Amino acid sequence: MEYHDWDSPIRTKRLNEILKSKRKEAGLTQSRGAYEMRCHDSYLQRVEKGKAKPSITFLVDLIELYKIQDAQTIHKIWWLARGHAPPGNVNPLAGMSIDSNFRDLVLQDNKCMAYLTDGAYNVLAYNQLWADVFEGSPPKNMLEWMMLNDQARGGPMVKNPVLVDWGSQWAPCFVTQLKHVVEMSGGKNQQLNQMLTKVKADPRALRAYSSYADTPIHSDGACRPFHHPNEGRGYVRLFPVSLVGSAATIMRLEFTKMRPTYQTVLTAEGEVQEEIA
Predict the structure, then answer these.
(1) Does domain 9-82 have CATH number 1.10.260.40?
(2) Whole-prediction pTM value?
(3) Which GO terms describe its molecular function (predicted)?
């Protein structure tokens, strides 16, 4: 893979060669390409020449318009045009179909609560430990439940919400994830778009989105307060396992009554004890 300094003339030359040739292969003139992208000719020219950094959504649309499907070529374009790897596999439906072997991993987990979601956070599988959190069946869409359901976040009629301290401990991560997956789909996954619309229509969710959506927050190994209906109040450590090339995820939640202070980290030199932030 080719990597060049952002100001390198080699970078701009290579990007121009790739995009110009792919546009012609797609049977498009620059003017027609600009028309389809709903931008000015001069802007498309600057993008193709590497003189303007396109938005994620613009570059996703451009790759689709130019009918570029080769993974290596797409990877090159992202590095040359934006300076980083492509989000997921730049497919609006990435992670919407999951191999059943991943379901088996969830069902076999008898240590942690676990569930499997697709690229739009629809629940495809869950184990009994996760089912025990709910009186009926677990929610069908995890992000919608976590962002909009009072059983999750608390409300006038809910004394003990599952996600304790929702506004400060849980919501920031959820809205960051939502914005990321919407961008990753290029705005073309209708279910994610509808979810974003619902979030922005809900006053509590909107406040969280407006405050935290642009803040990078990662849930890997995070420890957050959690109310278990059978065990009472405690904490869960989150262990998300993202499936390659999509937002589909296996989420494992380890419940403890006391907040853990240290974790065991594996390194090539052996196990290391680290303090949990």
Answers:
(1) yes
(2) 0.71
(3) DNA binding
